[in-house]
Design goal:
The chain contains nine helices and 13 strands. It is of the alpha/beta class. The strands form four sheets. A seven-stranded parallel β-sheet has the order 3-2-1-4-5-7-11, with helices on both faces. The protein has a two-stranded parallel ribbon with strand order 6-13. The chain has a two-stranded parallel ribbon with strand order 8-10. Helix 1 crosses helix 5, helix 4 packs across helix 6 and helix 6 packs parallel to helix 9.
């Protein structure tokens, strides 16, 4: 049984905490409101960006996970979560005399600015074009400079139970098909948590992994498939003038094809290898409900 501290027990972190508890590990979760922690997780209330608010650390922190989410979409919110927050978490561990065997951090494929459908793996150059990717890349560097053995997992778009707004927007006919080919990359929440758990205890992990499912998918194929499964009309094409609506403008701007080959070669087996398995389960749950 290992003792694990998870900073950021939100959507992915809570799922991970639940997995670890079922395996018999002693799990501590850091979040502002500890009443939202998974069953059996010991709460540490506070804000990682303010390490003095966290109080004493557990007596034996063997492993740590940093899987926070920004409170909003602003540059300030990203800096507070991924730079101030990580710096505060590392300071707290150091001041409490704790040096974990390994820290696994959840980052994002947003660090890749490629947008022409280029193939991406862990050796691809990072060219972030927005502050989100720039901030995450800086956070990765901060973790590497800590001197603690670490693994970074750059996650694709996360979906799963309670986070299926794509389904809602298709049912509401609020989306349009792009006029150009656009590749997307995603991962189910349970695989995001499962991959982090796998790498946390891996005997000899690489320092970097892409956390995406088995195949990048062309966006139009995903939307048409979902519409068929839901029994609704397929989305129409956007107008040549680009009047695609607010919902379309909220979608990711970068088209790239990310590979999970390294994750699979590490021994991890995806529960939801494509959007069909993951979204298919969500659609069936909606139809039964």
């Amino acid at each position: 049984m290992a003792q694990v501290v998870i900073a950021g027990c939100g959507y992915v972190g809570n799922a991970l905490a639940g997995m670890l508890r079922k395996e018999g590990h002693e799990v501590y979760g850091i979040r502002r409101d500890v009443t939202g922690l998974a069953a059996g997780v010991k709460g540490i209330a506070g804000n990682v960006a303010n390490p003095e608010s966290l109080g004493p650390a557990p007596a034996r922190v063997e492993y740590a996970v940093y899987v926070v989410a920004a409170d909003g979409g602003s540059e300030q919110a990203y800096r507070q979560a991924y730079l101030d927050g990580l710096a505060g978490f590392l300071e707290w561990l150091r001041d409490e005399g704790q040096r974990p065997r390994r820290i696994v951090m959840a980052s994002s494929t947003a660090v890749y600015g490629q947008r022409r459908g280029e193939p991406i793996d862990e050796d691809s150059p990072t060219h972030p074009t927005q502050f989100r990717g720039e901030t995450l890349l800086a956070s990765e560097g901060l973790l590497a400079a800590s001197g603690i053995s670490s693994v970074v997992v750059r996650l694709g778009g996360i979906y799963g139970p309670g986070r299926a707004d794509l389904i809602d927007r298709i049912r509401e006919r609020a989306l349009r098909l792009r006029l150009v080919e656009h590749f997307t990359n995603r991962i189910h929440r349970d695989d995001a948590a499962g991959l982090i758990r796998h790498l946390l205890f891996h005997p000899d992990p690489e320092p970097l992994y892409l956390g995406v499912d088995d195949r990048s998918e062309e966006e139009g194929e995903v939307l048409r498939w979902l519409a068929k499964e839901l029994g609704v009309e397929a989305p129409r094409e956007e107008s040549p003038e680009g009047e695609s609506g607010a919902s379309n403008r909220r979608r990711a701007v970068g088209s790239k094809r990310c590979s999970n080959r390294r994750a699979r070669e590490s021994g991890y087996r995806f529960r939801y290898p494509s959007f069909r398995e993951g979204y298919g389960e969500l659609v069936r749950a909606i139809q039964v409900g």
